[in-house]
Every structure is written in structure tokens, then in C-alpha cells.
């Protein structure tokens, strides 16, 4: 009897496994057609990425070995990885590929927020349409006085670092960026302790999402629940829900003229659209804070770090500033949008820093139906990874000096070999909604920093080990020394 039961159970198990494999036959067929490293059943290429601190270098290595379109398995998930801009154009616009890869749900968990960055389908379409105007030039320009005030305070507090030991410019600037983003999104003047809580959550959130993303074992809920991370996620979510509820209450008593914040705009959208609920208001508010803080800080820090490493570029940028702001004393300076539009060289430095080190280095989409790509058909259920990092380092699109920081390559506008060869803010309907906001904020901080300080670093390009922990990080840290101008 036991033998019959045992044999039946094995038979049923085998049948279920074969059925599962059969439903996925198109994935295996595509995997077999595409080049890629040897993968093992159930774990896929997990072992090649076990040390995710090498993930970007691994992608570079694979793209030079297997070409610009190859496959990779993370657990039982098939990723088609492209480093070719024409593929990216097809993918980012294809109606079957508007949804983010399912693994983005780990961001929701890690950052404790559900909003534009991760939501899918019709809900995303509706939210994107309603929220887009809040990030247009007019809206962003209204934040410039708020940014100016906060940056000027920050310039003063930084003076204690003049001629002292080298410090991590990213860690130092996260505080000002979180505060700037909180000033403009929810108008919350957070104390230093609160800023630290936020920055801790930002980093923990990234670590959590990355761990689950790359490790198929952590993707199993019962294993994940044994780690300390679900408790941190709960803490993040509770902290932010309480903060939002308090602030939403306060905003209801503010006069109409003062309602200039991103949150005020979201509350207005909610008033006018019954399908945009208070949960949506909180989710989108939090999403802007989470999607905007570390990305902008990492990018700004990289701009200053690159200028510290390339003193001749820093001097060129400083001289440009002296022509736009000729007054010797910059104490009462109030930088305007018009001033920023005259800073062509600084614009080139920002673009170039984000080319060599794109803060968002890899993005991914999920195929919801067949997608023709080159001579292949990407079937429903496959994930497509867009490897921005390798594209930005491609010799084909950026020349033999692709690994070097040379802002002059953007001189005279963008003469790109392909319009999608530069992807720092992505392209297509799901590109970065906050790119204007980020660029204005980054350039404003850069102006004040370079006018007041000179930056140096002992590090060279070849010293750097970089990896993607959702955003790009450098193992050696972005260590700079600061000197008075
Ligand atoms: C230099 C700083 C920034 C960089 C490099 C950056 C980069 C990106 C990239 C590459 C994407 C596409 C992600 C994907 O397809 O998976 C994206 C999406 C997004 N970004 Fe940014 N971002 C920056 C700053 C900001 C800021 C300041 C905000 C908001 C205040 C923001 C909000 C968003 C949102 C909400 C999305 C999702 C858009 C959608 O799916 O419709 N970002 N960003």
C-alpha cells in the first residue's frame, strides 16, 4: 500500500514538473538559441553572481564574451540582456514590455512604498498621466528658491571639512539631498536624527532589494522571513506612514497660495480624481522621495568626485562660473534657472559623470506577450535587462576612451551615434519622471560647491571597483579632500 502511495506521489510530482517545463518551453527554446554562460537547473547562473559586488564587471565581461545580446538565468527566471541601443528602443516602447520586471516588487518591500516606479498596467498609465505635469519645467523652477536656501546653509556647515581628512562625498551629501527632497515634496524640516533615519532606510532598502533580486534562495518567502530584513521593512513602512499622516493633516490648514509642494499637488489630484486615493497620495509621495534621494545624491557625488580626480576639468568649470557670476563676493548669490542655462561646461561634466558611472546601471522589463527582437522572439514570461552600464562603456558608441571622463565629448551638443546610446535617465514612456528636478538640483549644488571649495582626491579611475546595489556604488567610496577657494 505504502509503495503504491509513494509511487503515485512521485508520479504526480514528475507530472507537475513536466507540465511546468512544458508551459515554459518557449523560454527554454530562446535560452538555447542565445549565447550565455553555463546555467544549472533551478539556480541558473546564481554562482556567477554570488558576489554581487562584482555584478557590473561581470556584465561587462559577459557582453564582451557573448556579444550585445545574451542570456542569463537568475534561479528559474530567464533574463535576456542587451547592451545595444537599438534593442533598447524596441523594448522600451513595445506595448508588451511596459511593465517592470517582477523583481521590482522587492523594491516595494525594501523601500516600503508602492508608486510609479513599480506599479504596472493601467494603474501605472493613469498615475503617470496625472503626475507628469508636477515634474514639468514650471513646477521644478518653483523649487529653485527652496533649493538655494538649503544649499547655502549646507555650504556653511561643510566648512569644518576644509583642509581636513578626506571624506566620503556621497555620505556627506546624502543629508542635504534628503533634506532638499523633503523640503520640496512634503515640506518637512527634518532634524539631523530624522535625516539619519531616512538615509539608513534608503541604504537598507537597497541592500534588501539587491539581496532578494540576485539570490534565488532569498526569493523564497519562508527563507527570507528567517532573516532580519522583514522587520526592517516593517519599521520603514511604519515610520513613513506615521510621518505622512501627520503631514497630510498639517497641509489641510495651509493657505492655497502656500500649497506649492509635491504633496499639495498630489492631494489636489486626489480631490479631483476619485480613483486616486489617499493610499496613492502616500505611495507616490514616498516613491518620489525614495526614487529621487539616493539617485540624485549618488550622481552629484560622482560629478564632484570626477572633478576632484580631473583638476583640469574642475578649473574649466570654475572659470565658467567666474564668467557667469563675476562678482568676487558670492555671499548673497541666489542662483537662478537662467544662470544654470548658461553653464554649458558644467552641463557637460554632469552628463559625462552620469555616462561613465550611470547611477541607475541596469533596468529590467517583463515580457507580457511575444516581443520580436532581431531574429528572435522573446516569449511571455521572459525578463529583459537593459545594461546601461555596459552601453555607456561601449567603444562602439563612445570610442576607445569610453572608460575615461572627458566632458568635452559632449561639446557642441549631443552627437550620438544612436539616440539611445545615452541612457542615464532611460527613454520611452517609463523614463525618469524626475530628470529635470534632479538635473536642476545637482547643478545648483555643484555651482555653490565649486564657487566655495576646490576638491581633490588621491584615487584614480583604475583604482575603482564599482557595483550595482540597485544604484551604482564604488567600493573604495568617493573620498575627496576639500580646500577653500
Ligand atoms: C540623477 C538622478 C536620477 C537618476 C540617474 C534617475 C534615473 C532613473 C531611471 C534610469 C529610471 C528608469 C527606471 C526603470 O525603467 O526601471 C527612473 C525612473 C524613475 N525616476 Fe528617476 N532618476 C533620478 C532622479 C529622480 C528624481 C529626483 C525623482 C523624483 C523626485 C525620480 C523619480 C523617478 C520615478 C518615479 C521613476 C519611475 C517612472 C515610471 O516608471 O513611470 N528620479 N529614474
Automatic annotation (TrEMBL):
Keyword set includes Metal-binding: yes
Family to which the UniProt record says this protein belongs: Belongs to the cytochrome P450 family.
Protein species of origin: Pseudolycoriella hygida
Subcellular location: Endoplasmic reticulum membrane; Microsome membrane
Classification via InterPro entries: Cyt_P450, Cyt_P450_CS, Cyt_P450_E_grp-I, Cyt_P450_sf, Cytochrome_P450_Monoox
PANTHER family according to UniProt: CYTOCHROME P450 4C3-RELATED, CYTOCHROME P450 FAMILY 4
Protein's UniProt name: Cytochrome P450
Binding-site residues, heme: 432
GO cellular component annotations of the record: endoplasmic reticulum membrane
Amino acid at each position: 500500500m505504502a509503495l503504491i502511495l509513494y509511487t503515485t506521489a512521485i508520479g504526480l510530482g514528475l507530472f507537475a514538473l513536466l507540465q511546468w517545463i512544458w508551459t515554459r518551453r518557449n523560454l527554454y527554446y530562446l535560452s538555447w538559441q542565445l549565447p550565455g554562460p553555463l546555467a544549472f537547473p533551478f539556480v541558473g547562473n546564481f554562482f556567477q553572481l554570488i558576489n554581487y559586488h562584482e555584478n557590473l564587471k561581470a556584465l561587462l565581461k559577459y557582453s564582451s564574451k557573448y556579444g550585445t545580446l545574451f542570456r542569463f538565468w537568475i534561479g528559474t527566471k530567464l533574463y535576456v540582456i542587451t547592451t545595444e541601443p537599438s534593442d533598447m528602443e524596441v523594448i522600451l516602447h513595445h506595448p508588451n514590455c511596459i511593465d517592470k520586471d517582477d523583481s521590482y516588487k522587492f523594491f516595494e518591500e525594501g523601500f516600503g512604498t508602492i508608486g510609479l516606479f513599480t506599479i504596472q498596467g493601467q494603474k501605472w498609465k493613469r498615475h503617470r498621466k496625472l503626475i507628469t505635469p508636477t515634474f514639468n519645467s514650471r513646477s521644478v523652477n518653483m523649487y529653485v528658491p527652496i533649493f538655494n536656501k538649503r544649499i547655502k546653509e549646507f555650504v556653511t556647515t561643510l566648512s569644518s571639512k576644509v583642509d581636513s581628512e578626506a571624506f566620503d562625498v556621497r555620505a556627506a551629501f546624502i543629508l542635504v539631498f534628503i533634506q532638499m527632497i523633503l523640503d520640496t515634496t512634503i515640506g518637512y524640516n527634518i532634524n539631523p536624527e530624522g535625516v539619519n533615519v531616512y538615509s539608513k532606510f534608503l541604504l537598507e532598502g537597497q541592500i534588501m532589494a539587491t539581496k532578494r533580486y540576485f539570490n534565488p534562495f532569498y526569493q523564497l518567502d519562508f527563507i527570507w522571513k528567517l532573516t532580519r530584513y522583514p522587520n526592517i521593512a516593517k519599521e520603514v513602512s511604519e515610520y513613513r506612514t506615521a510621518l505622512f499622516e501627520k503631514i497630510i493633516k498639517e497641509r489641510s490648514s495651509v493657505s492655497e497660495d502656500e500649497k506649492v509642494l509635491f504633496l499639495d499637488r498630489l492631494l489636489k489630484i486626489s480631490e479631483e480624481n476619485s480613483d486616486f486615493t489617499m493610499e496613492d497620495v502616500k505611495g507616490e509621495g514616498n516613491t518620489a522621495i525614495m526614487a529621487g534621494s539616493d539617485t540624485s545624491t549618488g550622481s552629484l557625488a560622482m560629478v564632484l568626485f570626477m572633478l576632484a580626480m580631473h583638476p583640469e576639468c574642475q578649473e574649466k568649470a570654475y572659470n565658467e562660473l567666474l564668467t557667469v557670476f563675476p562678482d568676487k563676493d558670492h555671499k548673497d548669490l541666489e542662483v537662478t534657472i537662467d544662470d544654470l542655462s548658461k553653464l554649458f561646461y558644467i552641463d557637460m561634466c554632469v552628463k559625462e559623470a552620469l555616462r561613465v558611472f550611470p547611477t541607475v546601471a541596469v533596468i529590467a522589463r517583463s515580457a507580457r506577450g511575444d516581443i520580436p527582437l532581431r531574429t528572435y522572439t522573446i516569449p511571455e514570461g521572459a525578463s529583459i535587462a537593459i545594461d546601461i552600464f555596459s552601453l555607456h562603456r561601449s567603444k562602439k558608441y563612445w570610442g576607445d576612451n569610453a572608460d575615461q571622463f572627458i566632458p568635452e565629448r559632449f561639446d557642441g551638443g549631443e552627437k550620438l551615434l544612436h539616440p539611445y546610446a545615452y541612457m542615464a535617465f532611460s527613454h520611452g514612456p517609463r523614463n525618469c519622471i524626475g530628470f529635470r528636478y534632479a538635473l536642476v538640483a545637482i547643478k545648483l549644488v555643484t555651482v555653490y560647491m565649486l564657487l566655495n571649495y576646490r576638491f581633490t582626491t588621491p584615487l584614480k579611475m583604475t583604482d575603482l571597483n564599482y557595483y550595482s546595489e540597485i544604484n551604482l556604488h564604488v567600493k573604495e567610496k568617493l573620498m575627496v579632500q576639500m580646500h577653500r577657494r
